[in-house]
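PROTEIN SPECIFICATION:
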Amino acid sequence: MTRWENYLNTAAGIVDEYDGSLPLHHYLKHFFKARPHMGSRDRRRIQQLVYQFFRLGKWQHQLDIKERMLLGAFLCEQAPDTLLGFFRPEWNERITGTVTDKLQFLGLTWDAAAAFPFLAHLSGGIEPEAFTLSYLQQPRLYIRARPGKKAAILRLLETAGIDFETVGEHTIALPNGTKTEQVLPDKSTYEVQDLSSQETGLRFKPKARERWWDCCAASGGKSILLHDIEPTIQLTASDVRASILENLRKRFAEAGLKNYDAKVIDLTKPVAGLPRFNGIILDAPCSGSGTWGRSPENLYYFTEERITEYAALQKQLAKHVTPLLQPGGRLVYITCSVFKEENEDAVTFLKHECGLEIEESGVIRGYDREADTMFVAVGRK
């Protein structure tokens, strides 16, 4: 059996066994750990095939697993590929063409509704075909240079021979797979943060010494962004999980952020014992559907019922945090979802049930610029 046949058989076996209960990257990590004889090149190529299978969503679902993997490789790869050259040499000769050219060559038509069975739930302004085709490529790796650190970061990247592109004032795009911790060992100089996520910070607009609450802080990326915009704020960060706050404390220490309060708070219940805030960031738990280009297995295994579950949770959280806004205070509501139930419907709830005046709301499109797609709304009390 050739190396290429072994790769395809192994990848097909993984897809056949995987059930979506674990994030795919965790599953693959365990899979390869149990098979130490596989080299880094073997692992990388098998992993690519698995991800390329899931990038097709449910499109061409009737095909055999191996056939879908080869189809995924043809549509996702953009440079000649030895594995594809072994199995489908005539496809490999056309690998540098556009997706449109490749589909035409195969006599296929892209079906956005088959690839993404939840089109009826998309937020306004999202173009279905462009959005679903974006799944064929992993979004880029973005970092945010912290204040005053960009020039030093660029020098290190140039010295290491890393291709990069600057985007705006603070953002740097890197090739996926870049070992940032090796090239940029000083973690206080940058944050790994998607382009669209960084752009949510344009809505924060904190003033000196204001009191702000990042109420679903997770590992604290939005808090660090907020602090970099206005270092004098009085910051409270909370999450429902103590283990996540331990990660936050570690990340804050690496970022040099010291003056803050971190609390375990369950926002599904009314909140007591906190002061009122000038600003609240509600980066709500959500489907994550705007980030599935990075984790396409979620597209494959997601069920429509979960949209309703997330939407109900988001309204519950909003109901419990908005009373802690001072008069004139601002709530920044954020999701990394593309579903209107989690986005526009939440804005309607903030306005009519929470009494906020909506100053801005809308999708931050990432699918047409190799980034995540997010939603942000700003409401004032």
Summary: The first strand starts at residue 141 and ends at 145. The mean pLDDT is 96. The two ends are 67 Å apart (CA to CA).
